[in-house]
Every structure is written in C-alpha cells, then in structure tokens.
Write a structure and sequence with these properties.
about 270 residues; 2 strands; two-stranded antiparallel ribbon; mainly alpha
C-alpha cells in the first residue's frame, strides 16, 4: 500500500492478497507470480541439491549432504515399497515432486505481507500472490502431468491393445463392456482432479487463515496491519498456526508424491 493512501478495509485486504499478478485474459490468462515463484524455488532448491551431489564425499558427509541423502533415501524407499515394476523415472520423479511441492508450500510460512510488500516496494507491482500451490492452475498443471504419465505407463507396460482389453473387460467381464469403460473413465478422470484439488484446498485454506490472523492482529493491537508494530503483532499471533502448518505442508507434499507413485504402480500392473 503506497504512502498517503487510506488503509484497506478487511474485505479489500483479503481480496488484495488473494489476487494473482496476471497478464492476458480469459482462457489465456497467465499468473506471472505463480510461474516466477515456482520457477525460482525449483531453480534454487534443485540447484542446491545438484551442488550437494557434485561435492558429495564417500567419507563422513557434511550436514547438507546428510540431509539430502536422508530425503532421497526416504523417497527411494517409498518407491521400492510401492512401485513393483522396473522404471528409472519413478524415483527421480517422486523426489522432484516431494521436494518441489514441499518448498512451494513452505513459502506459506513467510508472513503474508512480507513478499507482496517487498515486490510492491521494489517493482511497484500491486498484486503478488507468493505461494504457487494456492493457485489451482499450478496444482492442476502438476496433476495433469501425472495424468499423462499414467497413460504413458499404461501403454508401455500393457501395450495399446492390452490397455483396451483391460478397459472394456475389467472388472465385470466382456459382457458389461460399456459399464467397465464408463467406470474406468470416471476412475481415471478422478485422479488428476483429486490430486489438484486436495493440494490446492489445503494450501488455500492455510493462506486464508494466515490472512485472517493478520486481521485479528490488527484488531488485537489496535494498529493497522500494514504498520511495523502491527506486522510484529501478526507474526507473533501467526507463530502457533505456523508450527502446526509445518505438518500440513509436509503431509500435502508427501500425499501428492505417494499418490503419484501409487497411480503409476497401478498403471504398470494388469488386473
């Protein structure tokens, strides 16, 4: 909010923080903040992991190398326990999903006014929504990528005609082929929708709660939430929810990763 302007009302404040920085219109609208932040997070996080891999030692590992090895080992074990076919893609994909989604979720722990205020001060941009996973476009883009991989795995492991046979004969046999196909179609379409909406719904709800805590801090301190003391007040009030929210952002990243592994495992197995 620029100097000299009247403070935003509660409704205006909420709407201000839930609006994306966009270009274009209609179907071709692009949310620049989502693309910029998700790209920066990916470049920084995976750049650091690449750096750790390049400097990895066979002797006593450093702290960061140990942390990366723990994460990679945990994800690799989940893939071994869940995915029973042979594929060199699943483990790197699962690591990418877990780490990237977790780090994008973790931006929600930064005070809600900090990044938008910084961007507005430096670049004079009025709206900037910093958490990519609170944007359904980002979560659906990831889930549709998984959806395409599911069909690629289906064709790879079952063959085109084997997939058609399964779609029309399982689970009720060839005499109920239309029913089998309808059920399979619903099942497959539900996968990307459930993946995207679960992640988006949980993260969006968390973002709204942080915004409401800011408004509560303004009422509690009697100060405008854009002031310095008001900012300190809402940080203190947000601390309790932020500690609990750490579990949510970790769980949502883990669920997205595990469901991806399960869906790819089902696609590689025949009925």
């Amino acid at each position: 909010m620029a100097e000299g302007e009247a403070p935003l009302s509660a409704n205006e404040y909420i709407a201000h923080h839930l609006q994306n920085l966009s270009v274009g219109s209609g179907f071709w609208t692009i949310h620049l903040d989502t693309m910029i932040v998700s790209g920066l997070v990916g470049a920084v996080v995976f750049g650091l992991m690449w750096y750790a891999a390049r400097r990895a030692t066979a002797g006593v590992p450093g702290r960061f190398q140990s942390f990366v090895e723990i994460v990679v080992g945990m994800v690799d074990q989940q893939v071994r326990d869940t995915f029973h076919a042979k594929s060199e893609l699943v483990t790197p994909l699962a690591i990418t999903i877990f780490v990237w989604v977790f780090c994008m979720n973790a931006i929600d722990l930064i005070p809600v006014d900090f990044i938008p205020g910084l961007v507005e001060h430096v670049f004079h941009v009025e709206h900037f929504k910093p958490v990519p996973t609170t944007d359904p476009n980002a979560t659906f883009a990831m889930s549709l990528t998984v959806f395409l991989l599911i069909w690629v795995f289906n064709v790879r492991y079952k063959g085109f005609f084997g997939l058609l046979h399964e779609m029309f004969t399982a689970p009720f046999g060839p005499w109920l082929a239309p029913v089998n196909f309808a059920l399979r179609l619903i099942e497959e379409l539900a996968k990307p929708v459930s993946l995207a909406l679960r992640l988006f719904g949980n993260m969006f709800a968390g973002e709204v709660l942080f915004i409401l805590i800011v408004l509560l801090a303004g009422l509690w301190t009697g100060l405008n939430w854009g002031s310095s003391l008001g900012f300190v007040g809402h940080v203190l009030l947000s601390l309790g929810w932020a500690i609990f929210h750490i579990l949510i952002i970790t769980l949502q990243a883990f669920i997205f990763m595990m469901l991806t592994i399960v869906y790819l495992s089902l696609a590689s197995e025949s009925h």
